[in-house]
TrEMBL record:
Protein name (database record): S-type anion channel SLAH2-like
UniProt-annotated stretches for the region Disordered: 1-37
Similarity remark: Belongs to the SLAC1 S-type anion channel family.
UniProt keyword annotations, A-Z: Cell membrane, Ion transport, Membrane, Transmembrane, Transmembrane helix, Transport
Topology versus the membrane: Multi-pass membrane protein
Residues of the signal peptide: none
Spans traversing the lipid bilayer: 144-166, 186-205, 226-246, 252-269, 290-307, 313-331, 343-362, 374-393, 400-419, 431-456
Biased composition (Polar residues): 1-36
Gene Ontology BP, a term: monoatomic ion transport
InterPro entries: SLAC/SLAH (IPR030183), SLAC1/Mae1/Ssu1/TehA (IPR004695), Voltage-dep_anion_channel_sf (IPR038665)
Length: 520
């Protein structure tokens, strides 16, 4: 269709405000419109032109802003630090108060360890059970900070421990036949430093913007132990620092490094002792070894800097709690629900504490004496008892927490190098090379898996369901609730032991019904 002067629709004088007594004004408007069309036709010629007429809605910019604001899922506000309060204040000022009952309830209600155990499953308590629901959308990808877990610091543990091992291999006299230099140690140390700084900054942003998510991770029975990971990584960086950078560190740094570890231990160990929902028999799991390793790593660094009393103090605390934790985990108490029944890489954390304790006591006593050898042989036996399992890494979903399970292998290899320096011989040299090679290959394998999940499958940081569980248990069906309440009512007539700090009732004897008691 070609538009000509006759077919072109131009505004006519159809307004009632124009009277019939002004024909000259109407004629002038028509001639003006015809003149405009003539000039346009001369420039572009007769072309197919389509005109679309659409009225501009009133306040369109305001409506676009409202649509953009409403497109954001309000459920994320449950984890934001200040957005809930700020949005509430703005809405009140605009005269549109919002309902914040759910938000306040989810934020302020305390999550117990038993709630995590009821809602999650798996050796890392990372998988949501079928009956459970979460407070965040399941069909959307969450913001990156919400998907960045504290377990990511396990990568820093794995790489920094490798830097220590390669430094030990390059500086030990019995390993001179390998002709190693400190180049590998230098590269690994800088990589671990960059990782630690970048991860720390990222998690700091998570703490600032999503503090509720960090608080839930601290309440998680397994995630809470990974709060030791960045602190231990700092100790490993100090131990593995290349000689080309510095040969000695100021002893005052040790006190700054150990102060946060001491405060965190007082919090965690106090919960183990005080009972309640977070007593050790309830929440004991292999990741608790991370809190023990912090003591031995601090003792090793302090003794390396020439200190005496401080390293001995942390070594004593670590030894006492390691024995308690070791017995608790091996007993597999009926009250413990977090220890996985199947084999999992998490079991390698059994090896970490005695291996680091062996090197720490060697520095404290200035020799690889009987105490160092006892700790070393315990770690060596546990190491081989786990390695002989062929199907160890099969059937489990990869996560960044696997990096934390690689550093115990590196710790055993480093302790073996120290042992070969004390007990010289071909056998100890071969053992040192084999264990060091196995630790390096394991780290390389986990690195390949990390790269595959990061760049190929793009699921290295999936939605973290472990922090999004509801504070309340899902509603049960009416008949099931009546059955449970009826059973509980019958059990209440039996002999029971009540713990004032524990809401759980432990039944000691079955209820007696229609029974006749005879006295003799």
């Amino acid at each position: 269709m070609y538009y000509t002067r006759e077919t072109m629709n131009f505004p006519r004088s159809a307004s009632p405000s124009v009277s019939q007594a002004s024909p000259d004004l109407v004629e002038n408007q028509r001639q003006s419109s015809s003149g405009e069309f003539s000039r346009l036709e001369k420039r572009i010629g007769a072309k197919k032109i389509t005109f679309h007429s659409k009225s501009m809605p009133r306040g369109s910019m305001f409506h676009d802003h409202e649509a953009l604001r409403n497109s954001k899922d309000k459920r994320y506000d449950l984890f934001r630090t200040m957005s809930g309060k700020l949005e509430r204040q703005i809405s009140n000022l605009r005269g549109k108060p919002i309902d914040t009952s759910l938000q306040d309830k989810e934020i302020t209600e305390s999550l117990t360890a038993e709630r995590f155990l009821d809602a999650l499953q798996g050796p890392e308590l990372e998988t949501l059970k079928e009956k459970e629901t979460i407070v965040l959308p399941e069909d959307k990808t969450w913001p990156f900070l919400l998907r960045f877990p504290i377990t990511s610091f396990g990568m820093c543990l794995g790489v920094s421990s490798q830097a220590i091992m390669w430094k030990t291999l390059a500086t030990t006299k019995t390993e001179k036949f390998l002709h190693l230099t400190q180049v590998v140690n230098h590269v690994l140390w800088w990589i671990s430093l960059v990782l630690l700084i970048s991860f720390s900054i990222t998690y700091l942003f998570k703490t600032i913007f999503f503090f509720e998510a960090v608080r839930r991770e601290f309440k998680h029975p397994i995630r809470v132990n990974f709060f030791f990971a960045p602190l231990i990584s700092i100790l490993f960086l100090a131990l593995g620092i290349p000689h080309s950078i510095t040969t000695s560190l100021p002893s005052m740094l040790w006190y700054f490094f150990m102060a946060p570890i001491l405060l965190l231990e007082m919090k965690i160990y106090g919960q183990w002792m005080s009972g309640g929902q977070r007593r050790l028999s309830k929440v004991a799991n292999p990741t608790n070894h991370l809190s023990i390793v912090g003591n031995f790593a601090g003792a090793l660094l302090g003794a390396s800097l020439g200190l005496k009393e401080g390293p001995m103090f942390f070594f004593s605390v670590g030894l006492a709690y390691y024995l308690v934790l070791f017995v608790t985990l091996y007993q597999r108490l009926p009250t413990n629900e977090t220890l996985p029944k199947e084999l999992h890489p998490v079991f390698f954390l059994f090896v970490a504490a005695p291996a680091v304790a062996s090197m720490a006591w060697t520095k404290i006593s200035t020799s690889f004496d009987i105490g160092s050898r006892i700790a070393y042989f315990i770690s060596l036996f546990l190491y081989f008892s786990l390695v002989v399992r062929i199907n160890f890494f099969r059937g489990f979903k990869f996560s960044l927490a696997w990096w934390a399970y690689t550093f115990p292998m590196t710790a055993v290899a480093t302790a073996t190098v120290k042992y070969s320096e004390e007990v010289t011989g071909l056998a100890t040299q071969i053992l040192s090379v084999l264990l060091s090679g196995a630790a390096t290959l394991t780290v390389l394998g986990v690195l390949v898996l990390t790269l595959v999940h990061a760049f190929v499958q793009r699921d290295l940081f999936p939605n973290d369901f472990a922090i999004a569980i509801s504070a309340e248990q899902p509603k049960q069906k009416k008949w099931l609730k009546q059955f449970i309440n009826g059973s509980r009512g019958d059990s209440m007539r039996g002999l029971k032991v009540l713990d004032p700090k524990d809401s759980q009732i432990d039944i000691e004897a079955p209820p007696l019904s229609n029974a006749v008691c005879h006295t003799v």
